Amino acid sequence: MKFVISTILIIFFSFLGCLFFPWWIIGIVAFIIPTLIYQDHFVSFICGFISLFMLWGFLSFWISLKNEHILAHRVSLLIFKTDNPFLLIFATAFIGALVAGFAALTGSYVRKEKQQTNF
Amino acid sequence: MKILSLIVSAIVTIILVLLFNTRMLLPVPLGQLLNPQEGLWQNAEPVDKNYSEQMSFPQLEGKVKVYFDERLVPHVFADNNNDAYFVQGYLHAKFRLWQMEFQTRAAAGRLSEIIGPKALDYDRDKRRLGMVYAAENSLQAIEDDPETLAECNSYTAGVNAYIESLTESTLPVEYKLLGYKPEKWSNLKSALFLKYMALELAGFENDFEATNAKSVFSSADFEKIYPIVMDSLDPIVPKGTVFPSAAIQVKVPSTADSLYYDNKDSTTITEQKPDKDNGSNNWAVGGQKTKSGYPILCNDPHLDLNLPSIWYEMQMSTPSYNAYGVTFPGAPAIIIGFNDSCAFGFTNAQRDVRDYYEIKFNDSSRSKYWFDSTWVPSTYRIEDIKIKGEPDFLDTVIYTKLGPVMYDQKYSGGRSTNHKDYAVRWKAHDRSNELKMFTLLNKANNYGDYLKAIKYLHTPGQNCIFASKSGDIAIWDQGEFPAKWYRQGDFVMPGTDSSYLWQGMIPQAENPHVLNPERGFVSSANQMPADTSYPYYLGGSFPPYRGWEINKRLEAMNNISAQDMMELQTDNFNVFGKMALPILIKNMQVDKLSPQEKRYFNILKRWNLRNDTDSKGATLFVVTWDSLETVIWKDEFLQSGLQLPWPNESTLLDDINKYPDFKFYDDINTLNVETLPDDVTAAFKMATAVIRKADENGKMEWAKYKDTHVEHLARLDAFSRLHLSIGGGLNTINAAKPQHGPSWRMVVSLTPETEAYGVYPGGESGDPGSKYYDDFIDKWAAGKYFRLWMMKSSEVNDKRVKYTMSFN
After folding, report:
1. Are the beta carbons of B31 and A31 separated by less than 8 Å?
2. Which whole number is the average pLDDT over A83-91?
3. Residue A39, pLDDT score
């Protein structure tokens, strides 16, 4: 349950944050949520990772689908030298996921530290 | 232990953020670039995007409606002219902002700012040529004309209205990739864009190479290698036309023999050059030769093939005019097109309006230069070139009475050292208002209006073609051209004496022109405008063959339809091949060929003289002729150790026909004395060595071998269209070279209800993420056209209208 709620919150606030702040706001969001809802470190990492993988993966996939992948064909060729729109979608999702995963892991360690000092 | 994990995890997170946020790896942070909410994904527009919009701008006086058709061509209906220009600026910016900004930065020598030190030489060249100086002078002429000024102000305001509406996510994708932002537009930028075109069209120069050639070859040889008139010349003004004598009598300087013609100085300058074939075809046939009884006008300007395209198609309709055609993103008005009474178009005049003078300075301080027996103080212009990631580069350019000192000890254009100072006199530096011509042409009703309009065209000189529904057809070789003595400015001139300056401009009325000729058509294809009976020296470098072929074809045609004209415009017949192939066949020493070479020779012999996409003969011919030029010229040229102008292919053909014992046939590096058959055979062996490789890779068919592509302006292959299947090429009417060719094909039948066709190799949107980015290219390559829709205001409910933008 915590996992699902954390995931939803990270997705929601990352989306909201990116409307007003630069892309790295996703790291801050993914860091804060596990400090509020504690989960095991590994689970936190997965939670942050999956949240942004889903958010950025879905957004880029959806945009690209409506675009019939015109831009993704061209940019994948430009960046990866291979014509594969899904590679670009994956790279987008993975970059977001990596940052959010480690930010969430950091957040969970902070939470743990706080709990220990509280007791 | 936990603290340690926390620290490690925090550090990894921070490193990741920094890594994806740095500009060290890519010009732009990867996180920002791929963020779906603001990065490049935002440029992937939905294929069913709705462009309809309502906008309100205080700058507008009345209302403007823009109807987009299914090709996304806007049909602008405005209450007044200036509102129309405002919306034109807005639309140019909305669909083409990056290119118009990039091209004007290029013109101003400011590319280093965005792409770093590798553009420094490009920038210095533009600064030293005085591109900004030229644009500033143009701007003054614009500001002196209230109508043009108001037009430019509205256009600029429209561009800026769009720029101000931009957010990080709506920036064109090239800004996101290269990591910079657009600047505000200004009238100076529009002037710079026009100078960018002037450089493309009136900037080609061979003076330094020709000076070297003069120092190496005897004058008799020189005239054979670089003749003024080609044997196949069929000029724009038909041969036999009688010209009045020249109003301006030019005087050859008294010192010309010793200081100029017989001067054997050579130079080490390397110039940046536009494509030498920046040319075009245009013609108009009179009603007596058409099926409908009304004139048909055709034009296809040959320019670099780029994406986004140099052209943006649109209709502009106001109470005072209604014009349709292609526009330059970066400047107001319709450039090539038609209105309800007439049609107009251009080809390049190819006249030489850029000359060099060797300047003599007092000492290394260069504070004074020697001119007409006195020391004249230099003036300086400091060029501050900003370079991305590096300190600014300051370049001091000395301005003399003759023009800016473009090449000196600090800048030779290349790697070689240069100890001389050369000032450039370029006609594009002079004050002129070319925009006014387009404004007036858009409104023109008749020949008189057209004639008034084209008088504003000073540089770049163009063959302005015209046809009207009232039945007139005309062409003027128009521009403000210097009156020159024989070979004046073909070589570097002495810069110490006013007798070498241009002595005056040819009066406009004396420019070569044709109105309603007996033969029923007017045409131009960059050939020499008139033969030697024209009373002024024409100089320049003129390709004769397309013009020859077009005239021959038009002569023979009658009862012409628009369809016939489209077929002619995309014709792949190689007239040069027709003239030159017999020489190759006659002189081939077949017994010296290997069995494989003989097989290729049989293909060449059977070539049908057409550069069609699947022709193997065309490939063999083109490569063999190129090789023949190499075999004949290269030995002498290499021996000189200097940069020399490569002779025109028409020259070699003429020389072969005229001089059976031409001394250049001999290879000076062998003991034998080679003859033409030896050279032809050697050239064929050289050519087949290249072609065999292409053949093995399945690339011997002409279109595959030629490999035409439309290249993105920033040279990004991923945003380009490569490997297009299109025939034609040099010396065919369908002049599609590898990255250069017909940039807009237009056929306008001036029947009471105009019937017009057109296509350009691009698309209306400059966004590589739009389906409208390159959607015309396949049609263009296939030689097909779109029917152009001159929309009427009563047709707003027509099913072709897909989207509507309202401005008020």
Report:
1. no
2. 96
3. 86
Residue A118 pLDDT more than 50? no
Strand partners, B806: B54, B65
Interface of B with A (CB under 8 A): 2-3, 5-6, 9-10, 12-13, 16-17, 20-21, 29-32, 34-48, 173, 177, 716-719, 768-771, 773
How many angstroms separate the first and last alpha carbons of chain B? 67
- Cβ proximity of B488 and B234 under 8 Å: no
Q: Which two tokens stand for residue A63?
A: 């945009």
8 A C-beta contact, residue B176 and residue B27:
no
Tell me the mean pLDDT in the region B423-452: 97
Q: Which among A64, A112, A113 is the nearest to B44, CB-wise? A: A64
Cα B472 from chain centroid (whole Å): 28
Helices (H) then strands (E): counts for chain A = 5, 0
Q: Do A67 and B719 touch (CB under 8 A)?
A: no
Looking at the complex, report in whole angstroms how far the Cα of residue B762 sits from the nearest Cα belonging to chain A. 15
| pLDDT for residue A60 is more than 60 | yes
Q: Give the best-scoring range by mean pLDDT among B288-292, B540-544, B638-642.
A: B288-292
**B479 conformational bin, left if phi > 0, alpha if psi -120 to 50, beta if neither:** left
- The domains found in chain B, sorted by start residue, are 575-706 (1.10.1400)
Q: β-strands B462-468, B473-478: how paired?
A: antiparallel
Residue B711, phi then psi, degrees to nearest 5: -100, 140
CB contact at 8 A, B758 and B745: yes
One DSSP character per residue, B184-196 reads PP-HHHHHHHHHH
Find residue B297's DSSP bridge partners: B284, B748
Question: How near does any CA of chain B get to the CA of A50, in Å?
Answer: 16
Determine the residue type at B242: V
Angstrom distances, CA of residue B516 to CA of B237, B285, B410, B446: 12, 9, 53, 13
Give the pTM.
Answer: 0.96
CA dist., res. A56 & res. B169, Å (int): 15
Among candidate residues B484, B75, B131, the one with its CA nearest the CA of residue B274: B131
Q: What is the DSSP letter of B645?
A: P
pLDDT band with cut points at 50, 70 and 90 for residue A89: very high
- pLDDT for B15 beyond 60: yes
Beta-carbon contacts below 8 Å between A and B = 121
Band the pLDDT of A1: cuts 50, 70, 90.
confident
DSSP characters over B32-48: HHH-TTTSGGGGS--TT
- Residue B526: CA count within 13 A, CB half-sphere: 27
Residue B243 has pLDDT above 60, yes or no: yes
- Taking CB atoms and an 8 Å cutoff, what residues of chain A touch B35? 18, 23, 56, 96
Is pLDDT of B128 > 50? yes
Local structure of B378: helix, strand or coil: coil
Please state, in angstroms and rounded to a whole number, the distance separating the CA atoms of residues B128 and B388.
20
3-state secondary structure of B747: strand
What pLDDT, on the 0 to 100 scale, is given for residue B278? 78
Instruction: Give residue B330's pLDDT band: very low, low, confident or very high (50, 70, 90).
Output: very high
**Residues whose CB is less than 8 angstroms from the CB of residue B11 and which lie 6 or more positions away in sequence, other chains included:** none
Do residues B373 and B468 touch, judged by C-beta distance below 8 A?
no
Taking the C-alpha atoms of residue B419 and residue B417, their distance in angstroms, rounded to an integer, is 7
Instruction: Lowest mean pLDDT of A67-76, B227-236, B790-799, name the range.
Output: B227-236
Per-residue pLDDT reduced to its tens digit, B70-115: 999 999 999 999 999 999 999 999 999 999 999 999 999 999 999 9
In terms of Cβ atoms closer than 10 Å to its own Cβ (0-12, 13-18, 19+), residue B206 is buried
Closest to B661 measured CA to CA, from B231, B230, B224, B233:
B224
| Structure confidence at residue B685 (pLDDT) | 97
